[in-house]
Every structure is written in C-alpha cells, then in structure tokens.
Amino acid sequence: QEKAMHPRIDYQKFSLLLMAGIFLGGVVFVRLRLLGVPLERDEGEYAYMAQQLLQGVLPYTESQSMKFPGIFFAYVGVLAIFGESPVAIHLALLFINLATAFLLFLLGRNLMSPSVGIMAGVSFSVLTLSSALQGVWANSEHFVLLPAVGGILLLWVAQDKPKRFFFSGFLLGCALLIKQHAVFFCLFGMIYLGSRLVTKSHPLNKPFLTIGLFVVGGLAPIILTALIYGVTGNFSDFWLCTIQYASEYVFMTSPGEGFENFKYNFAPILESNFSILWLSLIGLASVAWRKNGKGEYLFLFGFFVCSFLATTPGLYFRPHYFLLWVPVLSLLAGVGIESLVSRLSSYRLKTVIPAGILTLALGLPFFLQKNFFFTLPVFEATRMVYGLNPFSASLEISKYIRDRSQKDDRIAVLGSEPQIFFYSQRRSATRFIYMYPLMEKHVYADQMQRKMVHEIEGAKPEFIVVVKLSGSWVTSRPDFSPLLKDWAQEYLSREYEISGVVDILSHEKILYKWGEQARGYHPRSSYHLLVHKRRA
C-alpha cells in the first residue's frame, strides 16, 4: 500500500510545481513588461547616493539620509553590474525577488514540507508584485528580505554548527544595515535562540558559544560601517542622520494617526490579495487542529509577530513597508493550504485540491490587478500608483538640465525629488536632497533650513528646480517658520530666471514649456515644477 501511494504523492508535487512554474512565469513577464517604470523618490535617493559612492563620496558627507548605508552599498552593486538606468535597477530587482522566493521555498521545505515551500515561494512572488505594495519599484524592503530570509533559514537549519549561527547573525546584521526596521528580524533570532535555551526543545550543545557567535555576526556589519566612518572622520555625519534625526522621525506620529495610516494603506493590499491573506489566516489558525509540529508553529508565530513589528517604526505604515510582512504571510498561506488538505481522507482529492486552491488563490490577485499587470503603459502604471507625483516628468527635466550644463555644475531641487540628480548626473548643491526633514516639527528643522540656505548660496547652482506639489513637501503648518519660503522667493528673483515650466494638468496630460515659452507661461495647474537657470 505504501508503494502504491508514491505515484500520487509525486503527482501532487508535480502538479504544485507546474502551477508554481506558470505563476512564476507570469510574475517574470509582468516585471519584464514594467522594467521601464520611472524611479520614484526612494529609488532616486538610493541611486543618486550610490552614484556618488562610485565617485568616491561616502553617504551623509554630501547628501543627508536617515537610512542606514547598506541600501546605498546594495545599489552600488546594482549600478555597477546592471547599469545606471531605471530598466537596469528593476531588472536587478527581478533577480533579487526570485532569489528571495527560492530562499523562502527552502525555509518552507525545511520548516514544514516541500509542498509548503513551493506554495510559500510562489505566493511571495505574486504578493510582492502587487501595485498596492508598490512591488515593482526597487524599495529597500526588497533588499532587506534577501539577507533576512537567508539568515532565518540558516537559523532554523543550523543545528549545532557554530559557523552557521555566525553567518545567520551576519546575514540578519546585513539586513539591519540596509534598513533599521530589520532590527525586529534580529530580535526574532535572539528570541528563537533564547527559547531553545529555556525550553530545551532543541538543546544547544554550546549555548554561550552559539549565541555569542550569532550576536558577533549580527553586530559585525554595523561595527565595520561605524569604523569606516570613524577612520574617515565622518562619524558625526553618520550619527546625526541615522540615529539622532531618525530618532526624532519615529516619534512624530501619534498612535491614533498610526492606526489611521495602517487602515488606509493596508486596505488596498487586502482588497487585491485577499485570497492569499485568507489562506495565511487559516494557516495561523490551523495550530488548533494539527497535532504535530508545535515547535514549527511557535517559530512561525514568532516570525509573524516580529515581521509585523518591522512595519511599525514611526507608525507611518507606508505601502512598501508591508513587504517586510510578506515572507511569513506566504509561509502561512502554504501552511493554510496543506492544513485544509490534511483533513481530506481521499488520496485523489489530496492530489488535486492543493493545486486547485493554489491556482484560485494566486489567480485572483492577477485578475483583480490585470490592468496594472498586463495593460497599462509604464508611465500610466506609475500614475495609477503614485498619482500626480512628477516621476515621469523628472526624466524630461533632467534631460533638459544635462544638455544645458557642464558635468561639474551643481544643481538644487527645492522639493523631494532626488531622482533628478541621478538622471541628470549632476551633484546637489546642498546635502538636503529631501525637503521633508526641513519642514517637519523637530529640534533640527530650523538648523537644517539655515544650513541649506548657506550651502546653496555658497555653491551657486546652475539650475534650481522648484517643485509645487504637496507630495514633495510636508503639509504646511501655521506654526512653521517661513524662513525657507521667504529666502527662496528673494534669492530666485535676484539670481535666476525661469527657464522651464512643467505643468501637470491631469493624470494623462503634462505640458512642457522651455526657454522663452516658459518665461511667458503661467501654470494652469497648482501641480507644477519651475526650472530656474542662473542669470549670466
């Protein structure tokens, strides 16, 4: 009887692999179709600062960012290997996404079963493609997940091999170096090792050595980075940006505002991917009727909680933050399917049902997002996700600046559009490539504004782009100093003249006016950008 069962078991795996292959092919097709989507702000920041790194300029010395520098190092690799264009960056993301899906397959296979691994890997790729998660853009969360999932996989399969615990910690430390949110993945590793020590369910032969190597591995990337900044004399810049200002940033949102942010940004994710998320919920609840694997469920539950916590810093709950929750949700979706099938008595049904559920669960997100996946041109797809933000317009503005300036000329952007620096291949006249830190309510805001004014006046940039879009600034407040606004108005009228106007009239129509046409044109929309050229 046991021998007779093997063909059915093999056929079940074959059917799951077949459906997974079809959906992975669909994911690859969509990502290839949308390779040319213009860079959004965060991508522009990472690409510009990586561009500077390739020129020998360390992050935080000429450009300010509150992110840890790992993402800039990762983008250096992307630009060096794939090239300096949106297509190259998004092609690199395709490989990173597939690699993470494969690691998740290995984790699911080792944690539960090969079937769970297959379903988790393909569910991850489909979920991370979602427009509601801004998944086709190369945000830092994608780069966090590759080492984080690798580190967690090593943690589970390490057994009593000390080197594996060191490399597990090292990979999780690399994830943390890419984005501070990954500290919760490191916390999960510590909790898991602590639970093994306390419960003795999987006893550690050398507990102090094991935990010590894990901690040393985790701290190594951060310590090495701090040493680099210390040796080069730039540690104060690194500390101000990534610790002092970042600490202010995470406490600017109240719990009530945070809850509203969560509801607003998670609702579209749930709406377009509800079939996979319902399976995740079933997987989480299935511990109630599955008798075996309690240790595995505790592992998954801890991973679930810490992954959710990774989305919470600052309580902003931006759509791409939820990417950090996707790996464990995908694992739980695989567990959910297997748990439903385990209650069936018929071997025939156990062969057919998993592939059917997987097809339905993954097919619905494709159907609900079919316009974004298969129909909309890249610029329209970007507008669908990011509204009237000037990401496509940045390409035209950058080309205009690049064609009318020298390679060593500086430019400034009064707004938060760092992609313009990357596209134009011109360095910023000020370290403040985002306006957000200057307009938020924290102790450094006034100091930052004055420093920006001083840097721009000293650099005398050839072009200054003024962005008149709310998304590029923080909502104005009546209690805020008008210093920056008053200075910009007086300085631009004295030293510069209008050289270009980009008038964003609607999602479908943008008017570009250059030279003499720009000087006599009055924008018809409140959403526009003004390009100022320094007077001769």
Briefly summarize what is shown:
The protein has 536 residues and is α/β, with parallel strands linked by helices.
Highlighted features:
alpha/beta; 536 residues; single chain; disordered N terminus
Report on the structure:
By secondary structure, the chain is α/β, with parallel strands linked by helices. It is built from 22 helices and 6 strands. A 6-stranded mixed β-sheet has the order 2-1-3-6-4-5. Helix 1 runs parallel beside helix 5 (114-127), helix 2 (41-54) packs across helix 3 (70-82) and helix 7 runs antiparallel to helix 8. The chain is globular, with a radius of gyration of 25 Å.
Calculate Rg over CA atoms.
25 Å
Tell me the series of helices and strands, N- to C-terminal.
HHHHHHHHHHHHHHHHHEHEHHEHEEHE
Report the β-strand fraction as a percent range.
5-15%
**Which residue ranges are poorly predicted, with pLDDT under 50 across at least 5 consecutive positions?**
1-9
Helical content, roughly?
Answer: 55-70%
Question: By helix and strand content, what is the structural category?
Answer: alpha/beta
Main sheet: strands, sense, barrel = 6 strands, mixed
> What is the number of strand segments?
6
Task: For the largest sheet, list the strands in their spatial order.
Answer: 2-1-3-6-4-5
How many helices does DSSP assign? 22
Secondary structure: elements and pairs:
Elements lengths: L1 H32 L7 H14 L15 H13 L3 H26 L2 H14 L12 H18 L4 H17 L4 H17 L7 H25 L3 H15 L5 H31 L8 H16 L16 H17 L4 H22 L1 H6 L2 H9 L6 H11 L6 E5 L4 H6 L2 E2 L7 H4 L5 H15 L3 E6 L14 H13 E9 L5 E5 L1 H4 L8 E7 L2
Parallel strand pairs: 1-2, 1-3
Antiparallel strand pairs: 3-6, 4-5, 4-6
